[in-house]
Design a protein that fits this description.
Length: 99
Amino acid sequence: MTSGGPPKLPGGPKPPGGPRLRSTRLNIVEQSLIDTLERLREQPAGPRVRELRAKADVYERALRAWTTRPPTEEARAALLKLVLELNVDVMSLGKLPRV
């Protein structure tokens, strides 16, 4: 005998409590933060590096908090924008002549 519902397809809805797939946006945020922190470690210490590191730490904490409480779509978009801007700032910092 068969059950009364439609067949379960591999791409269909997953049961609650199963493994969650992370969104592309969150993966981009995570990888950008990893890259940013790595670049900051390569920079000589200074006020600007400390400022950018502090921003990265705040963004990283926000991302970690989302593992227990998923973000809204607006929050995801906002953090993505902030992290990408930070990444650009850090890359620009690396292009400045070292004193």
